[in-house]
Amino acid sequence: MSNSNERKLQISNGNYLDFDQLSRILNSISTLSKKDIKFSNLEEETGLPYRQLRNRAAIARAMGILNEKSLILTAFGKLIVEHDLFFENIGTLEYCHYLASGNYNNLVWFDVFNELLPGNSPTEYQGWMNFFMQKYAEIYSESSIKEHLAKEVRFTIEAYLKNRFRKLELLIETSAGLLQSRRHADINPVLFAAMIYKYMRAKSISLVQVEELITGPGTPGLLFGMDEATIRTLLELLHEQNFIRLEMRHGLDQLRIREEYSDEDFLRAFYNGETSVLPQKARLEEGLLL
Predict the structure, then answer these.
(1) What single string gives the DSSP state of each residue in 103-166?
(2) Beta-carbon neighbour count of residue 57 at 10 Å?
(3) pLDDT of residue 3
(4) Cα separation, 75 vs 36, whole angstroms
(5) Nearby residues of 166 by Cβ (< 8 Å), 6 or more positions away
(6) pTM for this structure?
(7) For residue 32, is pLDDT > 60?
């Protein structure tokens, strides 16, 4: 979703994705009254060492939960604290995955789900390493690739095979040890709407070709391995409820988002399990929510 050239090779620094510690940190940040929260404050509140806190904060930023330059919760982070502090809702994990793998700056995370898995045959860990070594051999030193890149690749694999992201079943390992992607088609329509609005607002566009949402980098279709029929069904539902406009006549195949909505509106509606927070003229039918 970002087009910055400041891509981050190191996010995990060899640590694994610990959602329990992340919950402790988010809870502490939400209870501190200071506007300028420092890691020293979190050390006192959580009992976690500085180095561990910095690492967990980096991972939280990668998932769009903390602001990039501070220890302040994003709008999504505030909703997590309020409604799903322990990351038990599958929708929370879906949106964390969407933000993390859709952010171009998260080098390994982005490349895995936007390029490696969609465009290559299933392979084992070494195949993943070969992909990255070939792609970045002229950008990073050999030592950086061997040390830091290997850690980030293992972090990603473990997050989706052994950690809580395994619930998404986006990555599976065959009996032969091959890593391959799996389609994820059961996304809540309201959460899907939040993803579309996030994607398009980040690009400062209000109109997009439907094909782009199916195959474009950083889109829900590519990041969740969704098939075209599933995406079009979801878009039809949102169109019927006046949350988007599908324009498909006279050879057109595109959609428009509405000025009055934002991704935050749909995220809030998702967690509240209702649509009362949305403008009255566009309400989802009962049953379209959770």
Answers:
(1) -TTBHHHHHIIIIIHHHS--B-HHHHHHHHHHHHTTTS-HHHIIIIIHHHHHHHHHHHHTSGGG
(2) 19
(3) 46
(4) 17
(5) 160
(6) 0.92
(7) yes
